Amino acid sequence: MSDLDPVTRRNIRLTVALLLAVVLLVMGGLTYRLSQPRILNAYELRNERAYLIDPPRPVAGLSLIDQAGRPFTEAELKGHWTLAFFGFTHCGDICPATMATLAKMYAELKPGEQKDLQVIFVSVDPERDTPPVLSTYVTRFHPDFAGVTGEPARLLKVALEWQTGFAPPVAGGTDYQVQHSGNLVLINPRGELHALLVPPFEHGALRVVLRSLRATY
Questions:
Q1: Cα 205 vs. chain centroid, distance in angstroms?
Q2: Which residues are CB-neighbours of 127 under 8 A, at least 6 positions away?
Q3: What is the C-alpha to C-alpha distance for residues 18 and 50, in angstroms, rounded to an integer?
Q4: Nearest 5°: phi and psi at 119?
Q5: 78-106: per-residue pLDDT in tens?
Q6: Superfamily for 42-215?
Q7: Which among 86, 102, 104, 197 is most buried, taking Cβ atoms within 10 Å?
């Protein structure tokens, strides 16, 4: 390079500097992109068994009670996301497994994401799942989780509207099972049915699905 004139040397140095700047910009952009949470598109969401309810359907006329015996209405569904699972505390397999998965997923969320998400367990067995029983059950999985139940007719109406039906138990006795759907229902901050999530569930995949649905809201 010593044989080159000053102008040529200066141009070469400028070219090298520009190339280095471009490489650094590309690498910085790639690093930033890789550091961002993965967002699934509509096709990928369906592959994860997450189905948008289009258009979203408002929840109205909700009249249940929570684990403290307080009224739980559609007002409790507004201002944040809600993830609902229907089951019962005497369930021996799908309910504890799903609740444990939800707890693992919830624990991996960022604090802001946790604050913006309400997880509710809707008991379809109000005869045995009284508010105190519900409180003990849901907080065993996570102290932020809420339990909800109500009169059988109202529960059946809600379950059907939320596409998570169940079969009311046959009257008589206390040792019985309740057949119910394993779906999860996602409700948006406007209090509308937003998406239906179909099992099986894995906590990591579920976390990505929820972030994607919230990011595209």
A1: 10
A2: 169, 174
A3: 46
A4: -105, 125
A5: 999 999 999 999 999 999 999 999 999 99
A6: Glutaredoxin (3.40.30.10)
A7: 86
